[in-house]
Design brief:
Blueprint: H1 11-62, E1 66-70, E2 85-89, E3 91-92, E4 98-99, E5 105-109, E6 117-119, E7 126-129, E8 145-149, E9 158-163, E10 169-174
Antiparallel strand pairs: 1-2, 1-7, 2-5, 3-4, 6-8, 8-9, 9-10
């Protein structure tokens, strides 16, 4: 007879371990995915707020109008906010429309990804900061506000980005609407 002892796991021990692991993963994975979505939304909202803060700072520093606008190509204004946005030195044409040349683009942000959207009742295609750091809006007009959300938004995964009349931008975590 062989006097060496056998070492290893029995089938029952392996099945119990696999079952416990499956239960643990079924609880942990959805929470982890939710945390990732939350983190992406926070980062995207902070990127948009950063763009507004950069534009305000540059307008004050350069004593010139600076705009943040949606951009589909990273070089000109146009497209949707989901495709990306740019901060540009703003030269108005005779009609008061923003004109941008490539050498006037100060910073570029890419698309949101993940199916996230940016919308809002008062969401403008661009926000122009005046040389005094305030936004260029007519008296009595509501300052722009943006709602950033993911598809099938639930809980507090929506972010509202608002800009005050003085030009200060802020992001707030709110319940999905």
């Amino acid at each position: 007879m062989n006097s060496r002892s056998q070492r290893g796991f029995t089938i029952l021990e392996l099945l119990i371990t696999i079952a416990l692991l499956a239960i643990l993963l079924s609880v942990a994975v959805p929470s982890f995915l939710s945390a990732i979505q939350n983190s992406r939304m926070t980062a995207s909202a902070n990127d948009l707020v950063t763009a507004f803060q950069l534009a305000r700072s540059e307008a004050l520093k350069r004593k010139r109008p600076i705009s943040v606008c949606s951009s589909s190509d990273g070089a000109t204004c146009g497209g949707s906010w989901e495709q990306g946005w740019i901060v540009v030195i703003d030269d108005e044409d005779a009609a008061g429309e923003a004109t941008v040349s490539e050498e006037e683009v100060l910073r570029v942000w890419g698309s949101l990804g993940g199916g996230a959207t940016i919308a809002g009742d008062d969401a403008a295609d661009f926000v122009r900061y005046l040389p005094d750091g305030q936004i260029d809006i007519a008296p009595g007009v509501t300052p722009p506000e943006y709602e950033m959300r993911i598809p099938d938004c639930t809980g507090d995964k929506q972010r509202n980005i608002s800009i005050g009349r003085t030009g200060r931008a802020s992001a707030e975590r709110v319940e999905c609407s």
